[in-house]
Amino acid sequence: SPLELAILMKTTSANISQQLRLLELGGLVKSEKTANSEKGKPRLLYSLSQGSAFRIMASPGSAEKKLLPLTPSRKFLLMVIMQIDEKKQQEVLEAFFRLQPSLGQITAITYGADTLTVVAPEKSHESLKKILSGTKTRLSLPEEFRKKRASEIILYNPLENGVE
User: Domain coordinates of the chain in residue numbers?
Assistant: First the structure.
């Protein structure tokens, strides 16, 4: 709520409300009216409207910035860059690019203990094995995904943000 943010940011709730309205106009946040009529209780609750990525590229002679919707594929790429050791990134990205035509069959892709795991129904395992031959990728069933270890990073989960 604006009041909670104002306390955290050490500013006024009017200032925060104004900033949130601007973010709402820009499509970054959405508001939802509540039935609260009590004093000090929020009447509007704000949340992110959708996942977004803000890309900034700076190099000698050029600079560029762009706000992008965070699709499952973009989230995968960003998670790999930010969460996985640089030495393993190439291997993980190559496996993902091989899998792209088959993403509709995949429930999730996780990474942990230096292993990429592709979660898919058993009926898809045979075709995915062919695609992933020669890689160090493990296939797993959706039931096992629900028991995911805390050390694993979820790189791709199309149901998290809507299907791509």
Answer: 2-49, 72-156
